[in-house]
Amino acid sequence: MHQFKEGTASMIHIYAMCALAARFSDDPVFHGIARGSRGSIYISEAVRLFQQSIITPSLESMQGLILIGYYYGGEGDGKAKHIYTGLARLHAETLSLWEIPKDGSLLSQEEHRRTWLSVNIASDWSAIDISVEPISLNHGLDVDLLKFDDIAFQSLDPYLVQGTYSSPQSPYNMWAYMARSLGIFNQTSVLLRRMSQGSISFHDYCQEGVVLEGRLDEWEKSLPPNLRYTTENITSSVNQRLGRTFLAMHIGYHHFRQILFFPFLDARRNHDNMKLTKNAWQCKRSADIISDILRHSTDTENCDLNCFIYGHIAVISSCVHLHTLLFSGNTGALSMARQWLLLNFKYLMGIKSYWPVVEHSVARLRKFQNCCQDSVSDPFVLDNWMARFVTEHTSYPSERQDSAANTIDPALQSTTARSICAERHVPDHDNNAKTGCSIDDLSHLLYDQQVTSEALVNHALDWLLE
């Protein structure tokens, strides 16, 4: 904002940020324009301006490219996102961005580090989005990243500019911690895809997964007391204007855990094996915590998680809750799954109008739910479609094909699973999903013991897809 007021801000940045921010505006100038469509005129100008300097790399060009790529991610255009983030990576490599300028201010040096981190993150995530293994950059995250506290960098502390900054006793260095978990996500995504394609066996997946689980555990243990997931720390981070960053760090961590353990939901696995059962439980625990984080983001002021990636995470968490509704015979677990699922849907309803890709993700969730009802196969089998569904947050996978080889053993189906799948044929008074219902109507249905889980899910999805 300081550069904007001085008239020195990059116009590429301004137009790209307007393309992203216009959807959230209540300005009358946007009256009658769908929120998800407001950015198109701004992004066209940002792209036009960038094309004039495509072979003139700079710190500003990299930052602008990341913003443009992010816009296309929200549109569900994974290829365009990959191209623009790829250009950002090429610009970074051309300038050897990892070589932090010694003659710049400490603030300028930190801006270089954080831009390099953003390029790394965007490059890896966009590659996964189009089913490509991330490229290992020659100077990746081994570089000494993020010297400074998030609060100081966010507030542009004048001491930081003058070079006299010293780190506080309990720093809020969440971006640094998020950077350390990036490699775990990359390896998990690649591992899931390899198993789904038959390149490795489930046994091999378990062996490699233990290593990744250990790294995730170590990451969590390494968090200082003020950054652990507690209600008190949420409140403290909000007071420091870092509530969104705090929740983003923890929802990312638990998303990595839920996808790592997702294959253990496959009903064909040996449920007498305590290790496999424990891993399935870990998947569900992380899905529950994700729903709790979304609850805080909705209920706590200045904690809203309105980026499209969190819509994808909410959809995967919802799939895990659907698994509980299908296969659990535990009354308490069923009740909690219904509550978490409804909370996720409430969150998705709040952000789907902002991002076209979230609306598509919700539609995919409906297709997945239909698969749970109609398929003679276990819908949680990790085939290639499911691996893409779980890991790719801006892609549009084709229709899923049933495989006779994946047919579920009837002995593994609980009474709950059979009854839910049979509910397509129950009388109309239980299953006639009424469109146009409000969240209050759904909340009422949640506690109505006469309403089956299937009817509740159908009501909620119809509401989401209106």
UniProtKB/TrEMBL annotation:
GO terms for cellular component: nucleus. Keywords: Metal-binding, Nucleus, Transcription, Transcription regulation. CDD domains: fungal_TF_MHR (cd12148). InterPro entries: TF_fung (IPR050815), XnlR_reg_dom (IPR007219). Pfam families: Fungal_trans (PF04082). Residues 7-200 form the Xylanolytic transcriptional activator regulatory domain. It is found in: Nucleus. This is Pc15g02080 protein. It comes from the Eukaryota. The lineage of its organism: Eukaryota, Fungi, Dikarya, Ascomycota, Pezizomycotina. One of its GO terms (biological process) is DNA-templated transcription. GO terms for molecular function: DNA binding; DNA-binding transcription factor activity, RNA polymerase II-specific; zinc ion binding.
